[in-house]
Amino acid sequence: MAINLVKGQTIDLRKNDKGETFDLSSVTIGLGWDVRQKPSSGFLGKLFGSAEEEEYDLDAVAFLLNNNGKVANLGRSIQRNGRNVSMFEGDVIYFNSMRHPSGHIWLTGDNRTGAGDGDDEQIIVKLDSLDMKYDRIVFAVSIYQGRQNNQNFGMVRNAFIRAEDNKGKKIARFSLSGDATYNGMCSMTFAEVYRKEGTWKFRAIGEPHPTDSFVEIMERNYLA
Fold first, then answer.
1. 71, 207, 194: which is closest to 141 by C-alpha?
2. What is the spatial distance between Cα 123 and Cα 133, in angstroms, rounded to a whole number?
3. Could you give the number of structural domains in the chain?
C-alpha cells in the first residue's frame, strides 16, 4: 500500500520502513485532478439541479536538474505545424517535448480536459538508468492559459501525485485539496525526486505559483 505523504515529507523510493523494496528501473509518476462542477445553465439543469464540469487543460512538466539545481540543456527550437516550438529535446519534459533524448524519461500524453478517473497525465522515469549528471527531477503542473480563462487551483479538487514502481507496486501518494489557499494560483510544484547516498528520495512539496507559465517557474528557480 502506498504511503500517503504530507507536505514537506520525504521518503526513500527504493524501500520503505516496513522493509518492502521497489524496482526503480522504471517508475511511473502519475498526476491527477478533478475540477469542481458548476451548476448547469440549461433549463433542465436549473430544474433538476444538475451540474457540469468545466474543461481545464492542466499540463504536467518535469525539470531535470544538475547537481547545481539548474536546467543545463534548454534544447533547440523547431518548426511544427507552422509554429515555433522551443525547448525541444532539452531537459524540460512537457507537451511539446514529451521524450527526453536519453530515452529515460517521457510524458505519456497530453490530457487536455482532465476528464476521467485515475491519472490524468503520467511521466515515466527510468531512475536507475538516468545519467549521473541529473541529480534531481522536479514535477510541476500548470493550467494552460489559466490567467486568461480565470482558472486556478482553488477550483481544482482531488489533485494528487503518486509514484509506482516497475512492477506496479504503489510507493507513495501526495494529495492536495483545493481550498482558498490556492485561489489565484495557476501552477503548482507537486514534488521532486533526488539522489541521495546511492538511492532516490521523493519529497512532497505542494508549492503554488500565481503564474500559469512553467517557463516562468523555470526561469525564476532553475536557470543559471
1. 207
2. 19
3. 1
Q: Are 136 and 192 in contact (CB under 8 A)?
A: yes
pTM for the structure as a whole: 0.90
Q: Which grid coordinates are listed for 160? A: 494528487
47 lies in a domain? Answer: no
Summarize the chain as % helix, strand, coil (round to 5): 10, 45, 45
Is 46 within a domain?
Answer: no
Residue 77 to residue 107: CA distance in whole angstroms: 19
Question: Is position 100 within any domain?
Answer: yes
How many whole angstroms from its chain centre is CA 52? 25
pLDDT at 156: 86
Q: Which of 56, 30, 61, 60 is nearest to 164 (CA)?
A: 30
Cross-strand pairs, 203? 10, 192
CB 204 within 8 A of CB 29: no
- What span, in angstroms and rounded, lies between the C-alpha atoms of 125 and 203? 16
- Which of 64, 99, 22, 59 lies closest to 211, judged by CA? 59
Residue 43 inside a domain? The answer is no
Give the residue numbers spanning the domain of 106. Answer: 3-32+55-222
156-200 pLDDT tens trace: 888 899 999 999 999 999 998 767 889 999 999 999 999 999 999
Per residue in 63-93, pLDDT (tens digit) is 999 999 999 999 999 999 999 999 999 999 9
Cα angle 142, 143, 148; round to 5: 130
